[in-house]
Amino acid sequence: MNYDFEAQLRRRSLELAPRAVDTLQVNITKLCNQACRHCHVDASPARTEMMSPEAIEKCLEILERHPQIATLDITGGAPELHPGFAAFVEKATKLKKHVMVRHNLTVQLDKHPKTGASMEYLPQFFARHRVEVVSSLPYYQQYFTDAQRGSGVFAKSIEAMRRLNAVGYGADWSVLVLSLVYNPVGPYLPAAQGSLEADYRRELKAKFGVVFNRLYTMTNMPINRFRLHLEKSGQLEPYMDKLLAAFNPVAAEGVMCRSLVSVGHDGRVYDCDFNQMLELQAAGRDGRALSIFDFDFDTLLGRRIRFGEHCLGCTAGAGSSCGGATAE
Predict the structure, then answer these.
(1) Buried b (16+ CB within 10 A) or exposed e, 50-74
(2) What's the pLDDT tens digit per position in 25-53?
(3) Which of these, 128, 129, 283, 310, is most buried using a 10 Å CB contact count?
(4) pLDDT for 54-94, tens place per residue?
(5) Rounded distance between C-alpha atoms, residue 91 and residue 61, angstroms
């Protein structure tokens, strides 16, 4: 089977060029307190990659110079485990940027895997800086969540959500936003985002007394750790066939790489977080690889986005992005 993503675009006369750079997504570390089976970053407690203080300062300089980049999306690994994480958030909020943190919930309750430091300060810290907290919760039932992320993860995630709720996250009266992320447990497409959000809201409130603001659905991308699992279980080709059959031109128009750029821990620039993990570095029209250390906004807008067969994951069904579905 031919999984050529660009062939799908040509067949439908679609040209997906950048249309904005309104989000700087920065992966500051691959260190994590977990090692989830579906993790496209291959993050774990054994990883050591960290963004340098100089690179973080360069990201802040870019944010200050370019008001059109309104959002800083900080990710990892568990980004909170980076020693410069708190200062990065504080400085970005002083620049009046909307700061999002990809927070796995359980990191609140675990000791830092390298230093042993407590992470219990995080809910209050997030609230003080009005950070949007974006947290993966594979399902609203223990069995499916623990199957994907490890034994005991669901219970710890619920406790962490309660701590976020206690400082105002998810409450109707609060400006503090808690967004949950759903990934299917296995080689399946997500259910409809709206109906799934309603299910999450009802079940989590009724059974555990926790609340949140919105749910993002994301398709599991056929790369790295998840791809290896698919290959070992003989499910890679059927999964790719499923993604190809579900190609949606409307979802393709809304792919996140058209308005977001991703920055690796070493300062290299990518079209998205998935390209970053595949080391498909973004390049200008002249073929020169892009980095934050020679950041040029116009070059980014004029670049040609690099696509691959994994992009079928972002365009299947209702679409998938770091902000959830891209099409109804």
Answers:
(1) bbeeebbebbbebbeeeeebebbbb
(2) 999 998 887 656 556 666 667 787 899 99
(3) 310
(4) 999 999 999 999 999 999 999 988 999 999 999 999 999 99
(5) 10
Q: 247 vs 222, 235, 301, CA distance in Å?
A: 15, 19, 26
Sign of CA dihedral 267, 72, 311, 198: positive
Q: Which CATH number fits domain 18-228+255-309: 3.20.20.70, 3.30.950.10, 3.40.605.10, 3.90.76.10?
A: 3.20.20.70
From CA 254, how far away is CA 4, in angstroms rounded?
Answer: 19
In the numeric block, the tokens 């799908």 are attached to 8
The domain segmentation of the chain, as residue ranges, is 18-228+255-309
Structure tokens at 304: 């040609």
Integer Cα distance of 290 and 48 in angstroms: 23
Closest Cα to residue 39, out of 119, 141, 143, 153? 153
- 215: Cβ–Cβ under 8 A, 6 or more apart, which residues? 179, 180, 181, 182, 193, 196, 197, 200, 201, 324
Query: Has this prediction a pTM greater than 0.85?
Result: yes
